[in-house]
Amino acid sequence: MKLDERSIYPNLKLTIYKTGIRQNRLAKMVGIHEAYLSRIVNGSREPGDALRQAIANALHSEVDWLFEREKVMSFPALIREDRAAS
């Protein structure tokens, strides 16, 4: 079976955790929906430069460091759906 490859932002996830700011609050601070922020954190959406800067400002972090990518492997959606149905 073929695995999907995607990028995540581990420093973003870590910083959100360390600051104790909930994702829904951070999303409001930067003016986006919390579901969109969740997709960014989990690597399924790519934020634009202005949004990256807004998130970095809200978290008092450097943009480049916060949005360093890390590639991860995951199962295809079909396999995940099969497991959820079990």
Description:
This protein is mostly helical and 86 residues long. The chain starts with a strand and ends with a helix. The protein is globular and about 30 Å long. It has helices spanning 10-19, 23-30, 34-41, 49-58, 63-66, 77-85, and strands spanning 4-8, 70-74. It has 6 helices and 2 strands; from the N terminus they run E-H-H-H-H-H-E-H. The protein has a single domain (4-85), classed as 434 Repressor (Amino-terminal Domain), CATH 1.10.260.40. 12% of the residues are buried. A two-stranded antiparallel sheet has the order 1-2. The mean pLDDT is 84.
Defining key terms:
6 helices, 434 Repressor (Amino-terminal Domain), 2 strands, mainly alpha
Q: Give, in order, the helices and strands.
A: EHHHHHEH
Percent helix range: 55-70%
Mean pLDDT: 84
- DSSP, total strands: 2
Which class of secondary structure composition applies to the elements? mainly alpha
Rg for CA atoms: 14 Å
CATH superfamily: lambda repressor-like DNA-binding domains
The name of the CATH topology is 434 Repressor (Amino-terminal Domain)
Q: Tell me, briefly, the overall form.
A: globular
Instruction: Calculate the terminal CA-CA distance, rounded to whole Å.
Output: 19 Å
| H/I helix tally | 6
Number of domains: 1
| Low-pLDDT stretches | none
**CATH architecture assignment:** Orthogonal Bundle
CATH class: Mainly Alpha
Fraction in beta strands = 5-15%
Oligomer: single chain
Outline the fold blueprint.
Layout: E1 4-8, H1 10-19, H2 23-30, H3 34-41, H4 49-58, H5 63-66, E2 70-74, H6 77-85
Antiparallel strand pairs: 1-2
Helix pairs in contact: 2-3
